[in-house]
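Researcher: Structure for this, please.
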Amino acid sequence: MPYLVLLAEAMAVIFVILFSGVVIRLMRDSEGLPQPRMDAVGRTLVGSAQLALIVGSPLIYAVEAAYRLGLFG
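Model: Predicted structure, token format:
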């Protein structure tokens, strides 16, 4: 059974390496192309995701610190 877990981990690493290679190859192929402009919906989604990361990351650390200090009872 532990070998199955190790096999799954190795396959995940191989997938990440291959996927990264594909993304890098596609990025290099599109270097000379003009960049498309995002519409209002795309800008809103990207802005919301950025705000969620900016607010959510410190909030997670604050809640964990409060939990470890015993502020939740």
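Researcher: Any notable elements?
Model: Residues 21 and 27 are 10 Å apart (CA to CA). The longest helix spans residues 40-68.
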